[in-house]
């Protein structure tokens, strides 16, 4: 039975060319980039080349990137690094952020900070006007994700950034899900901090970066050496960073073709469900092209995912399945309310490399069969 992987928003397989770059670097670029001998200088050049390319991918300067272990560390550095550096105790975020932001904010609340969690509409979108109305004299940070990882809805980041432009408030966006999928220009978005992670775009796990605009105050989380211009201690993972740059190079060169293919996959998937008479609702709007989140009445998500898996389809939901219980998706709860059926019957399909139209047709057919069978019980 062929396995069809439709969970690229959770993590993505490494591109073969990225694997080759990673493997070669593991064996050849083994020096410490902080060493002054030839082996160290070779590692430094590889690191500098990758940094320059990755910075250019978001229209930033190379000295504005801080390499991290991934999106979670980048988000934590943005939140905690801002909070401990700036005077003021008020933070604004949204109820649909990734837990790397939400849990960091919750910790700050326990330490005496005041956090405003802005609501979203039924499409999962926050209003820039709500950000403006929530601002206070002691506001130090606004953190709003660029694209939601569960329903794919894009947020009005440029609009929010514009209204914060003339303030002293630091503006952070979690772009982990959007980077490599959509063009990103930090100046057009008007952001001060931006988080990304390699494993969402066919790069290796365990590496990412935080963009820090020049002049933006930030306290390090890690202390030790003076790597990353004294902003993040620890010897840089040069092979992974080189592979990260290769993944981004491929993503940028194929972005338009992928977006077109993913939109076609959505059409194929929904058309197949329509033909089989499956009733469904698409969650979210103004979405990233690779995410399709569907609410299918009459199913329970846990059994649905198990049946899909047994049929060779890898998909997911925003629910955390634990022993005997389901913790509902905080994103869907924010969109529809705690009693809504959508929080119990919504599933996310997300697309990436290695898929074909035939795979999508097959996955949709199995989805239709399973949903009809489970709905009869």
Give a summary of the structure in a few sentences:
The protein is an alpha/beta fold and 377 residues long. Helices cover 42% and strands 15% of the residues.
What does this structure look like?
The chain contains 13 helices and 14 strands. It is of the alpha/beta class and 377 residues long. Helices cover 42% and strands 15% of the residues. It has two domains: 4-11 and 255-375, Aspartate Aminotransferase, domain 1 (Alpha-Beta Complex), CATH 3.90.1150; 16-249, Type I PLP-dependent aspartate aminotransferase-like (Major domain) (Aspartate Aminotransferase, domain 2, 3-Layer(aba) Sandwich), CATH 3.40.640. Mean pLDDT is 95; it is low at 321-325. α4 (99-110) links the parallel β3 (90-94) and β4 (114-118). The strands form four sheets. It has a seven-stranded mixed β-sheet, sandwiched between helices.
Largest sheet geometry: 7 strands, mixed
The amount of helix comes to 40-55%
Enumerate the spans where pLDDT stays under 50 for 5 or more consecutive residues. Answer: 321-325
Q: Find the CATH superfamily of the largest domain.
A: Type I PLP-dependent aspartate aminotransferase-like (Major domain)
Key terms:
3-stranded antiparallel beta sheet, Aspartate Aminotransferase, domain 1, iron-sulfur, single chain, 7-stranded mixed beta sheet, transferase, 2 domains, 42% helix, alpha/beta, cysteine desulfurase activity, 15% strand, 377 residues, Aspartate Aminotransferase, domain 2, iron
Topology summary:
Blueprint: E1 4-5, H1 16-28, H2 38-57, E2 65-68, H3 71-83, E3 90-94, H4 99-110, E4 114-118, H5 128-134, E5 139-143, H6 157-164, E6 170-174, H7 186-189, E7 193-197, E8 208-212, H8 227-230, H9 238-275, E9 281-282, E10 291-295, H10 301-310, E11 313-314, E12 320-322, E13 325-327, H11 330-336, H12 342-345, E14 346-350, H13 357-375
Parallel strand pairs: 1-11, 3-4, 3-5, 5-6, 6-7
Antiparallel strand pairs: 2-8, 7-8, 9-10, 10-14, 12-13
Cofactor: pyridoxal 5'-phosphate
Protein name: cysteine desulfurase
Keywords: Iron, Iron-sulfur, Metal-binding, Pyridoxal phosphate, Transferase
């Amino acid at each position: 039975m062929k396995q069809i992987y439709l969970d690229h928003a959770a993590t993505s397989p490494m591109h073969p060319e990225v694997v080759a770059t990673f493997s070669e670097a593991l064996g050849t670029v083994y020096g410490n980039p902080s060493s002054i001998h030839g082996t160290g200088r070779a590692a430094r050049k590889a690191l500098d080349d990758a940094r320059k390319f990755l910075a250019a991918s978001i229209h930033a300067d190379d000295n504005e990137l801080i390499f991290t272990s991934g999106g979670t560390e980048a988000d934590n550095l943005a939140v905690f690094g801002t909070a401990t550096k700036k005077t003021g105790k008020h933070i604004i975020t949204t109820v649909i952020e990734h837990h790397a932001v939400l849990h960091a904010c919750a910790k700050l609340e326990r330490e005496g900070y005041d956090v405003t969690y802005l609501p979203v509409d039924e499409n999962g979108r926050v209003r820039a006007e709500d950000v403006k109305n929530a601002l206070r004299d002691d506001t130090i940070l606004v953190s709003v994700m660029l694209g939601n990882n569960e329903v794919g809805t894009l947020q009005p980041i440029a609009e929010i950034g514009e209204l914060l432009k003339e303030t002293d408030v630091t503006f952070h966006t979690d772009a982990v899900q959007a980077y490599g999928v959509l063009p990103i220009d930090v100046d057009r978005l008007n952001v001060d901090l931006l988080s990304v992670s390699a494993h969402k775009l066919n790069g290796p796990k365990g590496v990412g970066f935080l963009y820090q605009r020049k002049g933006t105050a930030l306290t390090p989380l890690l202390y030790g050496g003076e790597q990353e211009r004294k902003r993040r201690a620890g010897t840089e993972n040069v092979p992974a960073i080189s592979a990260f740059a290769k993944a981004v190079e491929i993503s940028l060169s194929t972005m338009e073709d992928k977006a077109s293919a993913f939109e076609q996959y959505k059409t194929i998937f929904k058309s197949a469900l329509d033909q089989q008479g499956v009733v469904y609702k698409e969650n979210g709007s103004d979405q990233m092209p690779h995410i399709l989140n569907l609410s299918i009445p009459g199913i329970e998500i846990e059994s649905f995912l198990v049946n899909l898996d047994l049929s060779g389809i890898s998909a997911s939901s925003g629910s955390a399945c634990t022993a005997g219980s389901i913790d509902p998706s905080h994103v869907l709860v924010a969109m529809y309310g705690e009693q809504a059926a959508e929080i119990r019957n919504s599933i996310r399909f997300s697309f990436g490399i290695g898929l074909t139209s035939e795979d999508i047709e097959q996955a949709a057919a199995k989805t239709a069969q399973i949903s009809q069978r489970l709905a009869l019980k």
